[in-house]
Amino acid sequence: MEKTDYIQLFDKFLQKQASPEEVQTLIQWLKSEGSFQNWIDEEWDAAASAMDTELQQKLLG
Hints:
Layout: H1 3-14, H2 20-31, H3 35-46, H4 53-60
Helix pairs in contact: 1-2
């Protein structure tokens, strides 16, 4: 499976729509050596460092 497949599977899991087999696949991915951590690191590095102005207004008034 590609990384995007696991991300979609994770989203499906959060929406409580994943089958038991899909949950097991997701668990194996999360347990696998570095796969999940590598993905998290990539997402963190790609994230913007500044907060969206509209969101900042909503949160801080």
